Sequence to fold (159 residues):
Amino acid sequence: MRKPYINKVHIILEILGYIMVLMSGVYAVAVMLTTEGQIPTHYNIQGKVDGYGSPTALLILPISMLVVNLIITLSLHLIPASNWNTGFKINPGKEIIVLTDYSYMMSAMITEIGAFTLVGTYLFDKGSKGIMLASIALTVISFITVVIFIVKAYRDNRD
Fold:
């Protein structure tokens, strides 16, 4: 069943997010197959390695972020919009535009998570403490995305 508040841009953003998660998984498997021994898996507060593990640890990020993206996708496509928690009552006649805003928010987050997964897997493999900066960047960008689209939806609901 087609939902009028989900458009081609939403689908493209979702596909992009999944492509990046898939690319990070392929990268992780390639590293696993070509790396002998252990890799750094944890850093202390000073940025010094304090834990090592198998290269299979590289799969943790792609697999966990795939699960997160699947939950968002299922929420977007399977949960009736009437059950979405918008934080305000949607005015009659404003349903499609408000739900489109929320759909953009969820689709953008899928893409952001995909980009983080790809960058994060690469940084993790290279033994870079940059993964912490990437995590902070994802948190900040996701927060900004949520605020922008909730404010937009709220404004679109009033107009």
Remarks:
- Residues 95-125 form the longest helix (31 residues).
- The chain has a mean pLDDT of 92.
- The helical segments are 8-34, 60-77, 95-125, 130-158.
- The chain has one domain: 8-158.
